[in-house]
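Checked the freezer inventory, then went back to the computational side. Two predictions to log before the end of the day. The first one is the construct we discussed on Monday; recording sequence and tokens without edits.
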Amino acid sequence: MDDLITWLAATLKAERKSQRALARHLKIDPSSVTFMLKGKRRIQVEEWQKIFEFLGKEPPSQFPLPKISRRAESVATAPVKGIAMERTWREEGVLTVGRRVSAVLGSEYPTTIQYALEVDDPERPDGVASEYVLCVPVSEMHRPMRVGDLLHCERKRGDLIQIVLRRIVSLNDKRTLVTDRGETTPPEPLSNYTVVGLVIGRTERYA
């Protein structure tokens, strides 16, 4: 099995085919392909067949196809709890309730505490229907915050709520400064917001 995964990684590189393109072909999140190549996500028989189709190659004779159950494997998911949108205030409770996306597997944080935010990004790449960040509650963090962390932040105005992503750019005992996700705005105090969660990954859905 490990040898076959090594062959897959080498063949992708040799054929100049990207993991993102393979993810689109398999209709799964790019992060799932990353975990496949790290041996952290089981590849099912049906997926191997689609992989060989994507590569335009027959299964290598020295590596027999793994004996994997054809029964659908359950996939850990995280609930979508809101929309991160710059300069937009929404009524509390009017969010993306009921939807779920793939959780981050192999993380130090269990999938049971993970949640997602849909990211409203006008510069989303062609073919990507939606983008999500996967988060864990800040109360569940195993370490102190540090420079570079991307945070789920909120602030309220009456019955309105604003959900944004803020990256820590400066951290000291007196004041923590943050900027937006794209780091294009001037730094501002983190105290302007309530910190709700820590971003631990991202995922995409394709159109």
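The second is the one RB wanted added to the comparison set:
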Amino acid sequence: MARGSQTEAAVLGVLSVQSVTGYAVREAIRDVLGHFWSESFGQIYPTLAQLEHDGLVERSHGERAGSSVYAITVAGRDRLVELLRQPDHPAPPRSGLMLRLFFGNALGVDACRGLIRHARVTAEEQLETFQAIRDELASDAATREHHPYWLLTISAGEHTARAVLDWADESLESLTALEPNEPGTRAT
């Protein structure tokens, strides 16, 4: 799926759950989908405008003056399904942490340990966040039909975080065999 189509799928997906303002679409993409999907905020409003032009969403006046609420149309739901059925073409991974560790000799053993410890703390925080989301879903009857699918993504995040914890522990143990070195010198 092309990048623009993925933005379209993200926006239509949010609107398939409930009709909301453009700002709320942006917030949902950041706060909900953000655990596994990032989207350029600069693309959201142009995408909403294009979706409205194409008859895939309808805009109505919101409660506040000047605000608009967007709702997905039947054609929009059909387009969402069409987009979601397209094969996934994963992008090559980009990990700043792995880039730094790959060139860890230039950084030094102690700095690498610090990076790994930070990754470990982040993974622990992610596990706590996923548990909080699970707890919140348990009390949210309004979106219950979506829960089995949302829980799949939460589970993937939990597995990934646990894998990072295991990797971090193993990596920290591996680094104990190395002598501390100054950045740019060879560790022995």
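For RB: The chain has two domains: 3-85, 96-175. Residues 3-85 form a domain with the Arc Repressor Mutant, subunit A fold (CATH 1.10.10.10). Let me know if you want it refolded.
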